[in-house]
Amino acid sequence: MASLGSFLLMATFVIFAYALAASVAGARRGSRQLVESGVGAFYLAAAVMTVASAVIVQAFVTDNYSIKYVQRYSDQLQPMFYKITSYWGGLDGSIMFWVFLLSAFGSLAVYVNRDRHRELIPYVVAIISGVQLFFLFMMIVHKNPFETFLVQAPKDGQGLNPLLQNIYMVIHPPSLYIGFVGMTIPFAFGMAALITGHTDDSWLRAVRRWTMVSWLFLSLGLTLGMIWAYEELGWGGYWGWDPVENAGLLPWLTATAFLHSVIVQERRGMLKVWNMTLVITTFFLTIFGTFMTRSGVVQSVHAFGEDRALAWMFTVFMVVILVFSFGWVIKRLPMLKPRYELDSWISREAAFVANNWILLIAAMLVLFGTMFPTLSEALTGNRLTVGPPFFNRWMAPIGLIILALTGVAPLLAWRRSTLANLLDSFLWPVVFALAVSVGFVALGVRVWSSGLCFALCAFVAATIVQEFHRGGMVRKEATGTDAVTATIGLVMRERRRYGGYIVHLGIVLMFLGFAGEGFKADEQFLLKMGQEATLRHFKVRNDGVQVTDDGQKQMVTGRVAVFENGKRLGTMYPARWFFRKHEQQPTTEVAIRRTAGEDLYLVMPAYDLKDQSMSLQVVINPLINWIWFGFGILVLGTGIALLPERAFAFALGRVPSETATP
Amino acid sequence: MKQKAVKVGITSLVLILALAGLMYSTLSEGTEYYKHVEEVMVDPGAWHGKNLQLHGYVVKDSILRKPDTLEYRFKVQNKGAVVDATYTGIVPDTFKDDSEVVLKGKLDARGFHVDPNGVMAKCPSKYEAKKGLTGPGA
């Protein structure tokens, strides 16, 4: 089976190579047959990758430990669910998973657009095939997931690291990969537009949904990562500015800019060079992120390993991407001239330009901080790292600017906002924000940065509510229905816009959650049996430590009585689990008590069974649940924005023809 | 044409100045040197007072904890060089004899003092994790 797998990978390599050659040759010669054979090969490659995936999954399911990868990430006792999902548990398999996803997405994108954007298809196939060739090459010569043991295979596997045996480990990587891989599609279409010279908006329309869906999965992957870090890793926080985290954040920042910036190109024919740059940069950052976390170029607590050969391969590939992509941008610069120039700095176009800049700067800062150790070692010989203080110091003001823009930009008029426009749009939101600020100042909240964050959250929330209210009222007058029906109809009529507003509302709630970090409390106690400790309005008491076993693992559970302002709340059970065959890597089971206002978070890192004493870390995380809830709102908004055209003709039908279009 | 070139020039200049300013402000504080034990012990005096991320391995049987407290004393070695370390706080699960560790802290004449939550440890056995943090605080 292993040799079948390896053969399939090599076959896929050959098929993609043919697809690339046939598409380019067919496009240049105007031969429809050649192009179609290239597309056919492209689909075939996807089918072969599906079979290859089935082979590795089958190997896991049948406990085939002759394959090194299976032996490394699975064992007899592992639940079937985790056996299957170990496909992407290690580096080699995760690369194959990337190739598989990209082949599936690529085929879908080509199939859906084969008629509407016929002229772009050959180069879309070629670009995606090129990317696939790189990853397949890397697998075949260096990191083959089907590699076998040369002599006797071990009878049992090493098993998946217990830290990774939970539901988040299963969803978080695929979600991130869907996000990363998905960004290859807009890149391919953008490059196809440049190469064929069709630099009008048609490529944007082809990729709009792809970009939104990929962005959604990237957001989901990042949030799941935060939840995983918070619930599983037990250090009390959810984001550490670790290189692996930053690798996921970087393309998210530029993809967000791209999603917004294309609106300006569609409406006003401006920012064409920006959009090309952003789509290329987003794709580049997905590759760069993968490179950072797999090559050992950046030291991270996540990855002490190093792989020079991999680093070199990636570096060459990235240089090729940059030279090729920006080379074409420079060559086609005359075609990317804007239709209009900027009329005024107080306009929606200008706000979008500001948005592009601020997100790009944020990405550059994060990149700088992440690569700083490598840069400083190259320049000074000393390896210097920067930690969370650096990132937080720079990203806090940037985050606040982005938050402010979220409220301001949708309310500015296209081309130019007059003073009357500004007063009309911003009066109530500003008044509301000021009122909220006064309230917080009275409560003693510091202005920088929490107070300002709360004020801006209030401001943006007010602008969104105002938009819904005004739009709803107009539609109510026009259609003669009630307010609720009118508002729903309004949202359905302009799903991208109002879906977008809901996404913004979700972001506001997430920022509210982030602001809570400024009020965090974190203490460590050593408690004898029966001993109490106090942190702010909470009191905890050590009621003993118990040991139980369920066959797969031994569980040491602490019983902690919890009191709030003197009143007993109940008992919490922080624990440590020792999995069979992984006794050296026990997991920390955090105990969390969640409310809208805050989380009480307990970790028991050490204990003494003889005298029932424990060391206990107590953390209070105010407002943290607004992050997860806000993300849910973000998903809802994105879902609305993604709803297809035809299903909602009813919303358009009810409005009389005399009504002005907003 | 000239106006375009001027715009590009000014933008580039602003960006380069910003980057330089950023580099300077970052270098002057908040950075930590990543060093192995033997690199530092060659000339300990030169490293006194600097923020370090010290990489090494916990010496077997050297971990001592004062009873009823969270105060630890242990030795860290790499390539033959050894340094005494002190730390107060919670240690990660993987902190034990022969663990590979990265310690955030400062060196002085008495030894290496680890900052709160500054112990990051990898498991003693071979552990090539793609994800997975073993340390309180990243």
Please describe the topology of this protein.
The complex is a heterodimer of chains A (662) and B (138).
Chain A: H1 2-29, H2 32-61, H3 68-73, H4 80-85, H5 91-112, H6 121-141, H7 167-182, H8 184-196, H9 202-233, H10 243-268, H11 272-295, H12 308-331, H13 348-380, E1 383-386, H14 388-408, H15 419-443, H16 447-479, H17 483-493, H18 495-515, E2 521-527, E3 532-535, E4 538-549, E5 553-564, E6 567-572, E7 575-579, E8 587-589, E9 591-594, E10 598-608, E11 613-622, H19 625-642, H20 649-653
Antiparallel strand pairs in A: 2-11, 3-4, 4-5, 5-6, 5-7, 7-8, 9-10, 10-11
Helix pairs in contact in A: 1-2, 1-6, 2-5, 2-6, 5-6, 5-7, 6-8, 7-9, 8-9, 8-11, 9-10, 9-19, 10-11, 10-13, 11-12, 13-14, 14-16, 15-16, 16-17, 16-18, 17-18, 18-19
Chain B: H1 2-28, E1 31-36, H2 37-41, H3 44-47, E2 52-58, E3 64-65, E4 71-78, E5 81-88, E6 100-108, E7 111-122
Parallel strand pairs in B: 1-2, 5-7
Antiparallel strand pairs in B: 2-4, 2-6, 3-4, 4-5, 6-7
Counting helices, strands and paired strands, the structural category of chain B is alpha+beta
Q: Using CB atoms under 8 Å apart, which protein chain pair has the greatest interface?
A: A-B, 56 and 40 residues
Over all CA atoms, what is the radius of gyration of chain A?
27 Å
Q: How far apart, in Å, are the first and last alpha carbons of chain A?
A: 61 Å
Cα-to-Cα separation, first versus last residue of chain B: 50 Å
The tally of beta strands of chain B, per DSSP, is: 7
Question: Helix count of chain A?
Answer: 20
What is the level-2 CATH architecture name of the largest domain in chain B?
Beta Barrel
Low-confidence stretches of chain B: 125-138
Order of helical and strand elements of chain B: HEHHEEEEEE
What's the CATH H-level homologous superfamily of the largest domain in chain B?
A: Nucleic acid-binding proteins
Which percent range describes the beta-strand content of chain A?
5-15%
CATH class label of the largest domain in chain B = Mainly Beta
Strand ordering within the main sheet of chain B:
2-4-5-7-6
Which structural class fits the helix and strand makeup of chain A? alpha+beta
**Strand residue content of chain B:** 35-45%
Task: Give the overall form of chain B.
Answer: elongated
